[in-house]
Amino acid sequence: MNPDPKETTSSISSMSASVDSNFKQEIQAICGENVLSCYQCGECTAGCPVAFSMDIAPNQVIRMAQSGLKDEVLTSSSIWLCAGCETCATRCPRGVALSKIMDACRQISVAQDKVTPEQKNVLKMHEEMLRQIKTFGRVHEISMIAAFKMRTGRFFDDVISGINMFFKGKLGLIPGIIKGRKEVKGLFRK
């Protein structure tokens, strides 16, 4: 059965309307990584500890960036789920640091107001974590979670888990401050 030529043409033209050929360069300008270096071996996805929960597999995020599918990448949950663990970069035979690409995509998504309603709370947690690092040079979990709860209004979602973690000594009351705080603040200024 041959497809209707009108349908094929309209789907191709609507797809090409959402292609941004400058997306690759935009990512590289932010993080220094060249998405064209990736040849789709899949090692990043195979090693990613959170790939199972992503809507787009890590190697597919790069492929979509290579193809200029900017909106699809910027509205995906994958860029917000990346833990930045660098397993992808460690496994990559080409040395592509996908976590840097994911971070650049998050920055572009925020700057261009592409964050989906489902990702708004993830963005708030991300912003709070960065604020903690800027302030203390590291994350102070209790104050980060308290600020997150205040911003989202989700006060009782995980109270029992938090209490259990506190009693097991996993959450410190007083934030630790690192020695190189000025250097960390300098990184944020850049």
Helicity level, as a percent range? Answer: 55-70%
Strand composition percent: under 5%
The largest pleated sheet is described as: none
Q: Report the end-to-end length measured between terminal Cα atoms.
A: 57 Å
Count up the helices: 12
How many domains make up the coordinates?
Answer: 2
The whole-angstrom Rg is: 20 Å
Structure notes:
The protein has 190 residues and is mainly α. It has two domains: 18-115, Fumarate Reductase Iron-sulfur Protein, Chain B, domain 2; 118-189, no CATH class. The chain is built from twelve helices and no strands. The chain has helices at 5-17, 23-31, 43-47, 58-67, 70-74, 78-81, 87-91, 98-111, 120-136, 141-152, 159-167, 181-189. Helix 9 (120-136) packs antiparallel against helix 10 (141-152) and helix 9 crosses helix 12. It is globular, with a radius of gyration of 20 Å.
